Every structure is written in C-alpha cells, then in structure tokens.
Amino acid sequence: MSKSRILIESRGAPLAAVPPWQSPMPPASGRREPPSGRHGGLVHRRRKGMSLVEIMIVISIIGVLMTVIAVNVTGFLDDANVAASRISMNNMDKALIAYSAKHKGRYPSTAEGLDAAKKYFPNNEVPSDAWGNPFQYYSPGTHGDHEYEIVSLGKDGKEGGQDADADIQSWVAPE
C-alpha cells in the first residue's frame, strides 16, 4: 500500500484508491492532515502568533474594561474621602470636648481657631480633611444652637458644590 493512497475495500475487493485526507477512516494518529503544497486543496499553515488586528481588538477590550473600572473606583474613592473627613471631624469633636473640660466649658473662639486646641489632637497637629485642605472652624456656631462648627470644603476646597465637592458640615448628619 502506498503512503499517499489508501485502498478502500468492500467485502475484500478494492473499490478505489483515495488520497489520505479524503479517507473515511482517520490515520493511526487519530487526526487527518489537511492538504498542502501542489497536491490540491487549500494551503493551511500553522499559525505561530496573533495578527495585528487580533492584538488591537484585545487592547481595545482591555481599554474599555479599564475605563469602566476607573469610573467606578473613582466614585468609591470620593465616598471614602468623605467618610474619612467625617471621621476626622468626629475626632476633632472629642479633642474640642477635652479642651472644653480643661478650660471650664469654654471652646476656642473663631479667632483662636483650632490651633488653640492643638495639644489635644494626635501628634499635636491640627488635622486636615481627606483632600489635604484645612478644616474651617467657627465658635460660636452660626447654624443653630451649636457651641462650635467644623466644615470641610470638600474635594474642590471651595464653598458649595455637589457630590465630592460638597461641603461637609459637623452639624449635619451623614446621608
């Protein structure tokens, strides 16, 4: 039997000689080899990598995923900074209460500012908000019956704003 042809038999009699890639029975390896070269059919080559188009598609998909992730993470970071500023304000409340206990119920005035209570803060330093901006301090408070008020001007460092740029006020409960 020739390597390039397989005889198909029916009840012991040869029917026809067929090229191996058209044989109904797979070779011993279990796999049919596609035709190659001049012996008919399409030429199939083994690919050893990715085409430029495939690489560009993969890079585009990664870019879209990174954009979606970045937008979502930025929102979480802003929420975390608002929460961190509120925690700092709560710690400042405790330090100002300690100052008041030491000074017969009196809180530092607006003119004295938070520097007057500096020794009651960690590391003897007046903390900044989560964005590195100084807290605003007013005593007596200007909104209702508060002994003092602490304000963070938010991410933008300016009065007013929305979302992360909104002012964080010690007398307003978190939403």
Please provide a written account of the structure.
- It is built from one helix and five strands.
- By secondary structure, it is α+β, with helices and mostly antiparallel strands.
- The chain has a domain of 117 residues: Glycoprotein, Type 4 Pilin (2-Layer Sandwich).
- Strand 1 and strand 2 form a beta hairpin.
- It is rod-shaped.
Key phrases:
175 residues, two-stranded antiparallel ribbon, 1 helix, three-stranded antiparallel beta sheet, alpha+beta, Glycoprotein, Type 4 Pilin, 29% helix, rod-shaped
User: Whole-number radius of gyration?
Assistant: 39 Å
- State the strand order across the main sheet: 3-4-5
What is the CATH superfamily label of the domain at 53-169? Answer: Glycoprotein, Type 4 Pilin
What is the overall silhouette?
rod-shaped
Q: Which ranges are low-confidence, i.e. pLDDT below 50, for 5 or more consecutive residues? A: none
What name does CATH use for the topology of the domain at 53-169? Answer: Glycoprotein, Type 4 Pilin
The main sheet comes to: 3 strands, antiparallel
CATH architecture of the domain at 53-169: 2-Layer Sandwich
Order of helices and strands: EEHEEE
State the share of residues found in helices, binned by percent.
25-40%
Strand percent estimate: 5-15%
The secondary structure category is alpha+beta
Distance between the termini: 86 Å
Mean pLDDT value? 77
* Number of helices, where a helix is a run of at least 4 consecutive DSSP H or I residues: 1
